[in-house]
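Input record, target 12 of the design panel.
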């Protein structure tokens, strides 16, 4: 697992070599088949097949297998030409970007013939190279990075993330250093520290009604700049699931649309908590029949999508994104999910004030990758609930967290949260 201000992972380029397309064209022509004929066999459009041959589209594993079967050629060689590297090679490239050449030579030297020694002009004896110690490869299906997500997003390769699922500091003010110190002391500031009620200790909640107009304006500007960076790293058709609340959701949603995202709806998490102004503060006995705010019974999650390139079916073939993964063949993913508050055992594992339950997170994380392939990013990782959910459903994920205490919390919590049985 990478820690500290970690190195950026190398990602396969989205600019694919025309070598795959040339091989496809040669094999198709060798069998005497036209573009239309092969496209009909593969059940794809002629235009998509033409883009594959011209190196303008990325073939999925399913398409590669179909092409190999139709043309009666080895699918393994096609996968290599398309950039689908063996897992061990991919791990080396991902986790050891600077040392990759030496590590790859070391890994595959047993399969190659010894290279002849190069003679220098002065016939000096060659100096033996010190063998580099090979570090163990990372086994976890995720990468955790302690960093500011804005900095990380600016360095990240474009079109390299397939979905974003995150619960950001959507009040911003509550996660400043000053307010976090007050939270950890258990008193003062924007964080409401509820008293114990009937033996139940309620979790701290931020009071967003204290935000000024200037702070709300700053919030919208923050999310606009954040969304611009997210839009760049997402592949076409990639979705963003973003947690918010009824008081501030309009500001966050407007920011994402301004950046260029399409609003695709909202996921309503039906959850009954103790949140809500039950009585006027310091006047509850005087105004016994007054509630300051509605008792909250739901939590909105905005759903946005980076525009697809062409039709959804074309985008799915090329980028593996554009839709949501169904619950089953018979049941589509729905926009209302019943959810209990986060269980005590999960909060003991990761005592983050905004920790979301695995029972809910696993449902939306699973839906985020329509074909079950790709990378899920949480740029505001917190206690690690998104990354743990991705582990549980079998997805690869990246978590970014700028607060060292929360980062260390997530490092320890993710394996435990991800292994919880529901």
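The sequence produced for target 12 reads:
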């Amino acid at each position: 697992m990478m820690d500290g201000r970690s190195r950026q992972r190398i990602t396969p380029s989205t600019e694919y070599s025309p070598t795959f397309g040339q091989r496809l064209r040669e094999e198709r022509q060798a069998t005497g088949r036209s573009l239309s004929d092969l496209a009909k066999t593969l059940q794809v459009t002629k235009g998509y097949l033409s883009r594959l041959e011209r190196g303008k589209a990325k073939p999925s594993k399913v398409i590669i297998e179909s092409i190999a079967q139709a043309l009666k050629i080895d699918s393994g060689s096609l996968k290599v030409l398309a950039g689908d590297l063996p897992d061990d090679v991919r791990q080396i490239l991902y986790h050891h970007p600077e040392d990759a050449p030496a590590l790859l030579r070391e890994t595959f030297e047993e399969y190659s013939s010894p290279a002849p020694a190069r003679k220098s002009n002065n016939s000096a004896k060659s100096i033996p190279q010190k063998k580099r110690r090979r570090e163990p490869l990372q086994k976890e299906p995720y990468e955790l990075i302690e960093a500011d997500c804005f900095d990380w997003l600016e360095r990240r390769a474009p079109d390299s993330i397939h979905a974003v699922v995150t619960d950001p500091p959507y009040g911003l003010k509550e996660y400043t250093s000053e307010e976090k110190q007050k939270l950890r002391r258990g008193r003062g500031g924007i964080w409401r520290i509820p008293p114990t009620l009937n033996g139940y200790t309620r979790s701290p909640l931020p009071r967003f009604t204290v935000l000024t107009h200037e702070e709300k304006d700053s919030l919208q500007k923050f999310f606009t700049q954040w969304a611009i960076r997210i839009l760049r790293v997402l592949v076409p058709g990639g979705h963003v699931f973003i947690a918010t609340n009824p008081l501030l959701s309009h500001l966050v949603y407007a920011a994402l649309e301004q950046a260029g995202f399409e609003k695709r709806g909202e996921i309503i998490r039906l959850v009954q908590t103790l949140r809500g102004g039950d009585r006027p503060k310091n006047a509850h006995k005087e105004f016994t029949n007054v509630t300051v705010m509605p008792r909250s019974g739901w939590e909105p999650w905005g759903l946005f999508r980076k525009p697809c390139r062409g039709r959804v079916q074309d985008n799915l073939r090329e980028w593996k994104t554009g839709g949501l993964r169904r619950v089953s063949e018979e049941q589509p993913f729905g926009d209302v999910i019943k959810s209990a508050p986060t269980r005590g055992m999960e909060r003991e594992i990761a005592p983050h004030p905004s920790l979301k339950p695995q029972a809910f997170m696993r449902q939306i994380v699973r839906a985020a990758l329509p074909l079950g392939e790709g990378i899920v990013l949480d740029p505001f990782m917190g206690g690690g609930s998104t990354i743990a959910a991705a582990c549980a459903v079998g997805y690869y994920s990246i978590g970014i967290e700028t607060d060292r205490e929360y980062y260390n919390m997530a490092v320890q919590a993710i394996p435990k949260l991800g292994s919880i049985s529901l």
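The radius of gyration is 26 Å.
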